[in-house]
Amino acid sequence: MLVTLKQIADEAAERDYAVPAFNIFGYEDIIPVVRAAEEKRAPVILAANIPAIQHMPLAYLAPLMLQAAKSASVPVCVHLDHGKDFQSCSDAIENGFSSVMYDGSQLSLEENIRRTKEIADYAHQRGISVEAEIGSVGYSDPSIAMKHQLSDPDEVEQFVRETGIDAVAISVGTVHRMETQGASIDFDLLERIQSRVSIPLVIHGSSGVPDDQLRRLASYRVAKINIGTALRMAFGNTLRDEMEQKPKAFDRISLFGRPMTAVQEAATKKFSILGF
């Protein structure tokens, strides 16, 4: 069933679990993720980022995501990840997404507040949830020129108060696109932020978080945890192995079976760690 982020995040923030937001790129990971959610009887967030939309425009990707959500037996939020401006967020909303994340983390606090509030007002008028980021989660890839800055509790409180968003993404030690679980969470900072705001918290870049710290995050008011690289690695590594074992195969459908199973298994493991 299709739901908004607010519908599942508000409850998750008060419970001892966190809802995973899996970055998806097409049918081959949408379906395994939803199957994993149904297997665990858990809500899930299907998240499309800008690179995914550049590869498969919303006119094609949104119907796939929405059909999977509407036909699922568990709550599924269809979410825009790291929307870069008003246009990308409004496009997702107009194509049926139930939630959008605007990322103004590279801007000044004042400009981030101004732009985020504009998007939040637009989305809320249409019944759509909004997530936004304060502080900045950087990237392990040095070619991606984005600052990495831990969130300041005072700024988080001001940001939430002045924008009216439904969930806030914070930076407490994670890094995007980590291929090994080497991140270290600043739980003291997380606690100080948690004490200042009442809306659900969001953690990005969680593929690099060790399992024990990931489970601990879910025990806080962290309602949404983004996971992308772990699934891409499961699919890509399995596909590479499949092609090496079948060097003469050229039918991609026959090659996608094992990678899709690997994605479902990786997603199921993350659900278990996050409290399901």
* Distance linking N and C termini: 18 Å
Protein structure class:
alpha/beta
Q: Give the name of the CATH superfamily.
A: Aldolase class I
CATH class: Alpha Beta
Tally of individual domains: 1
CATH topology: TIM Barrel
The share of residues in extended strands comes to 15-25%
The geometry reads as globular
Indicate the multimeric state: single chain
DSSP E strands, number: 9
User: How do the strands line up in the largest sheet?
Assistant: 2-3-4-5-6-7-8-9
List keywords for this structure.
about 280 residues, alpha/beta, TIM Barrel, 9 strands, about 15% strand, globular
Structural notes for this entry:
The chain is an alpha/beta fold. It has a single domain (2-273), classed as Aldolase class I (TIM Barrel, Alpha-Beta Barrel). Helix content is 49%, strand content 16%. An eight-stranded parallel barrel has the order 2-3-4-5-6-7-8-9, surrounded by eight helices. Strand 7 (167-170), helix 8 and strand 8 (201-203) form a beta-alpha-beta unit. Helix 6 (109-124) runs parallel beside helix 7 (153-163).
Task: Summarize, please.
The protein is an alpha/beta fold and 276 residues long. The protein has helices spanning 5-14, 27-40, 50-55, 58-71, 86-94, 109-124, 153-163, 187-194, 211-218, 229-245, 252-273; strands spanning 2-3, 19-23, 44-49, 76-83, 99-102, 129-134, 167-170, 201-203, 222-227. Helix 2 packs parallel to helix 4 (58-71), helix 2 (27-40) packs parallel to helix 11 and helix 6 (109-124) runs parallel beside helix 7.
